[in-house]
Amino acid sequence: MLIKIREIPALGLHLEVPLESAIVADALAGRDADLGASQVGVVLSVTRSDEEVLVRGRLIGSTILPCARCLAEVKVALEAPIQSLFVPAARAADEEAEDEADYLPHDGVAVEIGDLLRGALILAVPMASLCRPDCKGLCTVCGGDRNQKDCGCRVAFEDLRLASLKGLKLNSNQ
Ligand SMILES: [Zn+2]
Ligand SMILES: [Zn+2]
């Protein structure tokens, strides 16, 4: 996504655009997201002063990810702030070394915000999504969804744990 620097008006540019599907696919790669159900857009204000271009705004959207425990579909809201200052490529390397701030290079003609938006989306996706806070997940023995039915394997597991606790107690009493 290119923004031509000379086309940025003195009062700045206001952009409300959907993210290119290639960027969305790239940022969500490996997350098992439902790309067809993903909607991601950005609201940006782009301003320039001399040779610097400031891009500020936020990314908003939603996607569908598998529950980390039971693999059910979970609709996840996506939101991330965006802020980067584009400076001429020759300066970008120096600024980066001096400052922690987010400086990105431009070639004097246009700023490429694709990488910036991809990075914002990667940050916006939660590390693990749950269909509900108390999701019981899949049974490790039979693979059944323990939210749907009690397959019985769980009882065996709890009996085992209880037995070992009782064992400890007996030992400490002796
Ligand atoms: Zn779940
Ligand atoms: Zn089971």
Secondary-structure blueprint:
Blueprint: E1 2-4, E2 13-18, H1 21-27, E3 39-49, E4 52-66, E5 73-88, H2 89-98, E6 103-106, E7 110-112, H3 114-124, H4 153-173
Parallel strand pairs: 5-6
Antiparallel strand pairs: 1-7, 2-3, 3-4, 4-5
Helix pairs in contact: 1-3
Bound molecules: zinc ion (ZN) (2 copies).
Percent helix: 25-40%
Amount of beta strand = 25-35%
Oligomer: single chain
Which molecules are bound besides the chains? zinc ion
Give the SSE string: EEHEEEHEEHH
The largest sheet is:
5 strands, mixed
Q: Give the count of structural domains.
A: 2
Q: Would you tell me the overall average pLDDT?
A: 87
- Anisotropy-based shape: elongated
* Backbone CA Rg: 25 Å
Question: Could you list some keywords that capture this structure?
Answer:
single chain; about 170 residues; alpha+beta; 2 domains; 5-stranded mixed sheet; two-stranded antiparallel ribbon; 4 helices; elongated; disordered C terminus; binds zinc ion
Structure notes:
This protein is an alpha+beta fold and 174 residues long. The protein has two domains: 2-124, no CATH class; 136-174. It is built from four helices and seven strands; from the N terminus they run ββαβββαββαα. The protein has helices at residues 21-27, 89-98, 114-124, 153-173; strands at 2-4, 13-18, 39-49, 52-66, 73-88, 103-106, 110-112. The longest helix is centred in the last third of the chain and has 21 residues, at 153-173. The protein is elongated and about 70 Å long. The termini are far apart. Bound molecules: zinc ion (2 copies). One zinc ion (ZN) is lined by residues 139, 141-142, 144, 151, 153. One zinc ion binds next to loops.
